[in-house]
């Protein structure tokens, strides 16, 4: 999350809620805000966006933690409903005003001033609008994984992977890696200094690999995890071992 998100928070949220969200931001190389670094397949840096003052830097945060924090005040106000599936919307007139009415799969509806469609790449709102601007890429397949990042795994990683998000482009493929390392809160009961300064009960990492579709074995999505990982490893076997 970057500066624009924080500006929106300051306009809409109280200080306590903003503090609770910001306290969950992850750190990269000891900094809250960072930017990606592009490496070659030999693990030599090509372009370091952290060196550009005008590049918009951002901080990682767990999306579930952020969603719950933003949803809490809406829920407390009795304005949040779960288990509703969007089906369609229509624009209606009400005393000279335009309102939007949303219909759900169970036949219920709701009416408001504005409808925000945040329903992803298979957006029904996008389809109803007729934008047709979300097209699947048939030439490449994107593999994405998010997993916990315990201290034991963190300590075995290449230090550069701790410091910034990493991007690599080579051989008609691309790879992305980002670690989420929320700040550790001091525990008065601790007798010794912990090995790391982040909270490894919440830390996680995200890995993405973008490969030509014609190299992906049929049925990869249903294969055991070890076979899927073996495909990922083989796809970058000629890249530097740090990657």
TrEMBL record:
Q: Which GO terms describe its molecular function?
A: monooxygenase activity
What's the protein called, per UniProt? Answer: FAD-binding domain-containing protein
Q: Does the keyword rRNA-binding apply?
A: no
> Which UniProt keywords are listed?
FAD, Flavoprotein, Monooxygenase, Oxidoreductase
Species source reads: Fusarium falciforme
Record-linked SUPFAM superfamilies? FAD/NAD(P)-binding domain
Its cofactor is: FAD
- Check the UniProt entry and state the signal peptide residues, or none: none
């Amino acid at each position: 999350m970057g500066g624009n998100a924080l500006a929106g928070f300051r306009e809409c949220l109280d200080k306590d809620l903003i503090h609770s969200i910001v306290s969950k931001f992850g750190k990269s190389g000891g900094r809250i805000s960072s930017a990606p670094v592009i490496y070659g397949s030999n693990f030599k840096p090509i372009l370091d966006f952290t060196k550009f003052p005008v590049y918009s830097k951002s901080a990682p945060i767990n999306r579930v933690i952020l969603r719950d924090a933003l949803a809490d005040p809406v829920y407390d106000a009795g304005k949040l409903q779960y288990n509703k599936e969007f089906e369609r919307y229509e624009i209606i007139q009400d005393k000279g005003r335009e309102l939007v009415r949303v219909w759900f799969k169970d036949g219920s509806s709701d009416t408001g001033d504005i409808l925000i469609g945040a329903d992803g790449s298979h957006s029904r709102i996008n389809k109803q609008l007729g934008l047709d601007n979300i097209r699947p890429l048939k030439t490449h397949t994107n593999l994405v994984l998010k997993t916990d990042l315990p201290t034991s795994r963190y300590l075995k990683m290449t230090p550069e992977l701790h410091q910034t998000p990493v991007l690599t482009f080579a051989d008609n493929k691309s790879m992305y890696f980002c670690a989420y390392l929320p700040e550790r809160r001091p525990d008065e009961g601790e007798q010794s200094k912990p090995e790391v300064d982040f909270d490894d009960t919440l830390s996680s990492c995200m890995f993405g690999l973008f490969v030509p579709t014609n190299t992906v074995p049929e049925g990869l999505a249903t294969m055991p995890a070890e076979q899927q990982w073996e495909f990922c490893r083989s796809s970058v076997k000629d890249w530097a071992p740090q990657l």
